[in-house]
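Person: I have long wanted to understand how a fold can be written as tokens. Underneath my words sits a plain record pairing an amino acid chain with its backbone structure tokens. Those tokens are not coordinates but codes from a learned vocabulary of shapes. I should like you to check that the lines agree and flag anything odd. The protein I mean follows directly.
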Amino acid sequence: MDRAPAKPLSPCVGVCRLGPDGRCEGCLRTAQEIALWPRLSEEQRRRWMEEELPHRRRGTPWKG
């Protein structure tokens, strides 16, 4: 049986509006980061989601 390809890792939650700070209100990425996302490797995406985005949710700077 053929399996469907795995869906690319993404922090998108379907709320796609840029706020006054220039970040998406749903996933907290900037427009530039969203545009870059398809060119990142799975490892880079995972690192971004596990390290950078949690800091943004808490409002703390990431030192990665």
